[in-house]
Amino acid sequence: MLSEFRARLIDKQAEHRLLESMLTLFQQKGWLKARGRQRTDSTHVLAKIRALNRVLCVWETMRAALNSLAVVAPEWLRAHSHPEWVERYGPRSEDSRSPVGEAERVAFAEEIGEQGRELLDAVYDPMAPQWLRHIPAVNVLRQVWVQNYQRVDDVVRWRSSEQIPPPSRYIGSPYDEESHYSKKRSTTWVGYKVHLTESCETHLPLLITHVATTSAPVSDDAMTATIHAELDRKHLLPTKHIVDTGYVDAKLLVESQRDYQIDLVGPTRKNYHWQATLHTGFDVSHFPIDWERQQATCPQGCTSTSWTPAIDNRKNEVIKIKFSTKDCQACPSRSLCTQSSRHTRRTVTIRPQEQYRALMQRREQEGTQAFAQVYAKRAGIEGTLSQGVRMMGLRRSRYIGEAKTHFQHVATAAALNVVRSMAWFDGLPRAQTRRSAFVRLYDVP
Ligand code: SF4
What we know:
This protein is 42% helix and 16% strand. The chain is α+β, with helices and mostly antiparallel strands and 445 residues long. The chain folds into three domains: 2-48 and 195-268 and 368-425, Nucleotidyltransferase, domain 5 (2-Layer Sandwich); 54-158, no CATH class; 274-352, no CATH class. Strands 1, 4, 5, 6, 7 and 8 form a six-stranded mixed beta sheet that branches. Strand 9 (289-290) and strand 10 (295-296) form a beta hairpin. Bound molecules: iron/sulfur cluster. This is Transposase DDE domain-containing protein.
């Protein structure tokens, strides 16, 4: 019954009612206010599957397809499979049952590949019942085979790791095709990511206002605009949205202010060019820009000779500004400007005007006490994620697929709001960020 209930909620996209009806009540009571401060952060979520390497994945995919066909088309499968397959595909795939050594593993994977191809050829034979192609496990088998194998002279060959799709499209398990591999610093996982947004007013309860679930490889900044649009729909937009660097970008600083009058408070990505990190060279801040004339002036007083709009490798709009080879080659400050032996002149890459100004302004603010005070509020969202993880298993999906995992996250957020509003009613003090004995000794905040 519960499973059917969940499926019905998801089917009608009604799972948000769990949280939204609660938020409406909180607003009516005055415990939650629009145009205040909110903060967001994300954490990884493990899918409800076993993480498989590529060989185990194809092995398990073949096994899953055979098991499905054995249930829905037993006679057909008996006629199109081999009894000796039972030994390989009967028990679940295990690394301990696969060969050791690169060449042996590739040969083993190609053997599975040939058997999978035989099965797929039989399913796609014009004489085979058409409905066999629509069995989900068979469809996954076809996709996994396209991703991991190629036909060379009509022989199935194992693709090298450079030839497979990126993690955002690669199917890592036949049991949850929507879960994907990702890596953040030293953490690697297969599954999803959850983004929690909460209010953070001093004298009001801390309440979760929005929950987003994405595939694991989706970057945090890809969600900033979506979170704002959703908060707008709920009439819960903040004036200050406090986030870490992952959610901030020059374009988002401009769009948040322009579209929603939100001050997106978070540090920008560091300028990692050597001129900026060594603090001895001429980084972009040393080049005043004349936007009307579309020209930059370098510290030696030379003006740029070309101004070219382009798209960088992160798909951002940029402008590439180049100086003259003649000026740069004769320049006494050349070693402070460019160390490239390949390029004979300096190139500066900047964002379009509005974004450039927003970025420069934010970099200036980042060093101020006022910014540090507002940004200090962000740390509290770590406690919320921790409460979700420790109290309610937020970091492990209980279900298969992104939609049901999201349902779990919405239900978790609603439960956390109940716990938090009760704690607020009871006057329980909020937990403080822990400080080590050594830090306390010097009374560093
Ligand atoms: S190297 Fe070129 S751009 Fe740099 S300071 Fe010298 S003249 Fe100006």
